[in-house]
Amino acid sequence: MAKSWTDMVNEAKTEVTGVSPAEAHQRLQDDPEALLIEVRDAESVPIENRSPDVVMISLGSLPMRADLEIAERLRDKRLEDRSRQVIVT
User: Fold this and answer.
1) Sign of the alpha-carbon torsion through 56, 9, 21, 31
2) CA 16 to chain CA centroid, nearest Å
3) Tens digits of residue pLDDT in 43-73
4) Chain-centre distance of CA 56, in angstroms?
5) What is the pTM (predicted TM-score) of this model?
6) How many other C-beta atoms lie within 10 A of the C-beta of residue 41?
7) Which candidate, 83, 75, 69, places its Cα nearest to that of 57?
8) Cα separation, 27 vs 41, whole angstroms
9) At a CB cut-off of 8 Å and minimum separation 6, what does 55 contact?
């Protein structure tokens, strides 16, 4: 039987640590190589509400853009380093 959405979310929560906005800000200050990704569609996030360092990659395209198995032209090079800290909002 296929996993439900809730099952997948609960499984992800065991692997991923959530952080507060203040902690995310501190991590970005402490690690200049950290990558902040905004997964909402760009049209739904007013420019004045975006962090100057945010990378806009919609949630629907993030798995493809981070997939090292697909054609290089479809990937986002910033996501290739698996040791890089990534903060997703």
Assistant:
1) negative
2) 11
3) 777 777 777 788 999 998 999 999 999 999 9
4) 9
5) 0.76
6) 12
7) 75
8) 24
9) 35, 36, 37, 38, 76, 78
